[in-house]
Amino acid sequence: MRQSRFEQAFLAYLCTMDVLITVVSWLASYFISSLAWSLDFYPQQGETPPFWWCLRTVPAVILVSLLSYRLSGLYQLGRRWPLWQEVFHVLKATGLMLLLLVATTFFARNPYESRLASVIFLALTSVGLVLGRRCWGIYFRLRRRWGLVDSKALIVGTGRLAKNLDVALRSNNWMAMEPMGFIDDGVHSSVGRATQTVGGIEDLPKLVEEHGINCVFVALPLSRYAATKKILRLLRDTLVEVRLIPDVPALTPLAVQIGELEGLPTLNLRSSPYSFLDGLLKRTVDVVFASLGLVVISPLMGLIALIVKLSDGGPIFYGQERMGLDGRKFLMLKFRSMRVNAETESGPVWASQGDQRRTRFGAFLRETSLDELPQLFNVLRGDMSLVGPRPERPYFINNFRESIPKYMLRHSVKAGITGWAQVNGWRGNTSLRKRIQYDLYYITNWSIWFDFRILFMTVRAMWDKHAY
Are 419 and 435 in contact (CB under 8 A)? Predict the structure, then answer.
């Protein structure tokens, strides 16, 4: 994607800062490790390597670091990361850099290799990159507070999309871009935070010239996209940058992926939130944790199976048809918690508080969610994931898909044993609309760390008042 001159300059400064931090950390790691060896803080086999061996590796360090930082997403603009997320991305980038650097020095037959220096280098670089980015944020925040901006913008539109854009521009201090006003026909009132409607679309050329505007954002609803041609015609004799903000939330609540097909730009509105590597990582976590979980809790599962069998002599497990990824049906396993043939008279119905179909031990299993443990086998088979929207029965889905908008979007990922809706209390006989809202939030904002967070929260939410 083509970037503005300011964005290009910002990335150049950022890359320069990263290279300096990395090189300084590389050299500092040599001196710190040499000091540790000389003071016998850390055992060293053989003599201390000469500084020249470290120095001649600097070009490789620079090339490998820039490649690793780029591949790890450190130079993605337009998104603010909280501190924990920034630390995660930096650690991922520096870890990849160290692996590539070790491989490079090995094939280049460079004799400089030290595990102590490598650990020190990794720590210094990671801390330096995080602190450097935080300092950049403080610097740009102060610049905005002092009224220093590098560029000015006008926003065409006064609706929801325009207001969100106004907030985003003010929140991303690194852009040093000040929204000077909204542009729209007919309405001239205060909109957004300290931003007013300053004119109509016909006034654009005059406002751009008078206020030295650098960028015009077109943030109109879908019904008014035809006005974009008029805006471009009015601005054809100016040098101002024009950016179109598509009204994607009006089309889909999911994350959008930008692509290209033979030179034609495409917006994928209904794609999986996982890339190939993300999907591989999530599947690996599922298999590893499900396998470990089955090993650890096998005594507990054996005890539960024995009690279920002795309670009434019926089957231990209960398989129920559910719908998962891409609408595919599968048999979800549970420890049986209800009487045999419990739905013969009632038909398919949700469990409710005080449900008379439950066995005495089954009530305990459902209230503690222990009846869900056999679904670890579903995870190993690939029918489910550890974390995802809870799967529902096709009988109920046929009713929900018509009465609840966007219900089927939850099937764009694998169903899960636990999910964001469940750990926030929206499970069992609770609001379906709220549950869908939380499920779609999970799909849109998925990350492997989000999955770990939900798994930790699940332990706390196992005793849930809505589990019948």
Answer: no
Q: How many angstroms separate the CA atoms of 273 and 43, rounded? A: 47
pLDDT per residue as tens digits for the range 399-433: 787 778 778 888 888 999 999 998 888 776 677 88
User: For the segment 95-132, what is each residue's pLDDT rounded down to a tens digit?
Assistant: 888 888 877 766 555 555 667 788 889 999 999 999 99
Tens of pLDDT, residue by residue over 369-395, are 888 999 999 999 999 999 999 998 888
Distance CA 92, CA 447 (A): 14
CA dihedral 89, 92, 97, 102 (to 10 degrees): 170
Q: Are 258 and 21 contacting, i.e. CB atoms less than 8 angstroms apart?
A: no
How is 119-159 classified by DSSP, letter by letter?
Answer: HHHHHHHHHHHHHHHHHHHHHHHHHHHTT--SEEEEEE--S
Is 380:291 a contact under the CB 8 Å cutoff? yes
CA angle centred on 463, ends 459 and 467, rounded to 5°: 120
**Bigger pLDDT: 134 or 106?**
134
Query: What long-range pairs does 290-297 form, CB within 8 A, spacing at least 24?
Result: 290/376, 290/379, 290/380, 290/386, 291/380, 293/376, 294/376, 294/377, 294/380, 297/373
Q: Structure tokens of 210?
A: 């008078």
Residues 47 and 29: their CA atoms lie apart, in Å, by 17
Q: Cα–Cα distance between 419 and 438 in angstroms, integer? A: 9
First to last CA, the chain: 51
Domain ranges of the chain: 5-145, 151-251, 276-460
Structure tokens of 371?
């009846």
Q: Give the CATH architecture of domain 151-251.
A: 3-Layer(aba) Sandwich (3.40)
Q: What is the 3-state secondary structure (H, E, C) of 264-320?
A: EEEEECCCCCCCHHHHHHHHHHHHHHHHHHHHHHHHHHHHHHHHHHHHHCCCCEEEE
Strands 215-218 and 151-156: parallel
What mean pLDDT value characterizes the chain?
A: 81
CA distances (Å), 292 to each of 230, 380, 414, 452, 453, in order?
Answer: 61, 11, 20, 15, 18
Give the C-alpha separation, 334 to 320, whole Å. 8
Q: Which two structure tokens, joined as six digits, stand for 391?
A: 């799967």
